[in-house]
Amino acid sequence: MALEKIISDWQKGHFKPIYWLEGDEPYYIDQIVNYAEKKLLTESEAGFNLTIFYGRDASWTDVANTCKRFPMFAERQVVLLKEAQYMKDIAKLESYCEKPQPGTVLIISYKDKKLDSRTKFSKVIKKNGEIATFKKVPDWKLAEWITGRIKELGYQATPKTIVLLAEHIGNDLSRINNELSKLAVNLKDRTSITEDDIETYIGISKDYNVFELQRAVASKDLAKTISIIQYFAKNPKAAPVQVILPTLYNFFAKTSMVFYAGNSEAAVASALGVAPYFAKDYLAAARLYGAGGVDKTLLLLHTYNLKGIGINNGGASESDLLKELVVKIMA
After folding, report:
1. Homologous superfamily (CATH) for 2-134
2. Where does the DNA polymerase III delta N-terminal domain start and stop, copy by copy (predicted)?
3. Cβ partners under 8 Å of residue 6, min gap 6
4. pLDDT, tens digit, for every residue of 272-315?
């Protein structure tokens, strides 16, 4: 990945004069910018050689003129342009990028957008520097990302623990990382993260969450399903309907693929792109509902998703809509 490569190059003393960091995943961009701000210069060097601009306030001329300066009492100076997506005339930096100052490392944070690769500006940066594009981690790879991050921190966790984090937080990598850092502080000498830890330190109930609701619906356990829905009604921040319905839809959409994937857990896990630990849930749901039942459930979820945003819901509460939905699903 570009993040590891860029930081590895810096640690080896290899620098390019320009780094353009773009894309819709801010986590990686922030990691690189924060590293540059805190690690590329010593504290004494930073006093003279670290300059930070913000795209909303800075002019391209100020950035360019600063970049043209020579380092003072250091091998290089570091210039950070944060929130560059808000700089209206940023393309005017092209003239500097054509002949960058060798002693300057210019790092541009351009979040939620991408530079048009057809422009001369883009080609100049690519020629004299580096363009790194960071994409959002898709939902189906989120558990894998969380597992990897937990290992990087020196911990391990059960598959259910990882799913709890993924389902509750979503693909906000910065927030996930912050929550894991919070856990690390509290775990002290332990190396295993449990569901109890998730409940205690992050506030995600191990028994009343979207994942447990999904399992209850999948197994047609109406009593448990209603119990979880009632918990959500009393704790609306635990799982809003806008999270619950897409999660259930995603589960049954994958369940519909089981009928073409084979009967073994390994085959299902491979076809659905899920951990083998969860393959049995999809197999069980497929057997219990059948192809017709899965199709009916997907149609109901689509209908109630519209009701959840206020279309033909008769003024019913989210809790009442969910109860009505699950009764129809299990009928």
Report:
1. P-loop containing nucleotide triphosphate hydrolases (3.40.50.300)
2. 19-131
3. 19, 32, 130, 132
4. 888 787 888 999 999 999 999 999 999 999 999 888 777 777 77
